[in-house]
Design a protein that fits this description.
With 70 residues, the protein is an all-alpha fold. The protein is built from 4 helices and no strands. The chain is elongated and about 45 Å long. The termini are far apart. 7% of the residues are buried.
Length: 70
């Protein structure tokens, strides 16, 4: 879900997209989307957390010998 949400936010931006559009792209109902995320803001925070996790994973792959972030 967050992978597809990432594509939507990155192409349309946060303010331009509506929950109905996101639900449609995911192939689920708006109600089901609200069961996953209580608001668009909560979804956006989950998107940011997802992106940070992806970036961190990539850093660990590129720098496996480094155990100290400094």
């Amino acid at each position: 879900v967050l992978e597809e949400v990432s594509k939507i936010f990155e192409s349309k931006g946060f303010t331009s997209v509506k929950m109905q559009e996101i639900a449609g792209r995911l192939g689920i109902s708006v109600g089901a989307l609200y069961k996953l995320f209580s608001s668009k803001e909560e979804m956006y925070y989950a998107y940011i957390e997802y992106q940070i996790h992806r970036f961190h994973t990539l850093l660990l792959q590129k720098c496996p010998e480094s155990s100290d972030p400094k």
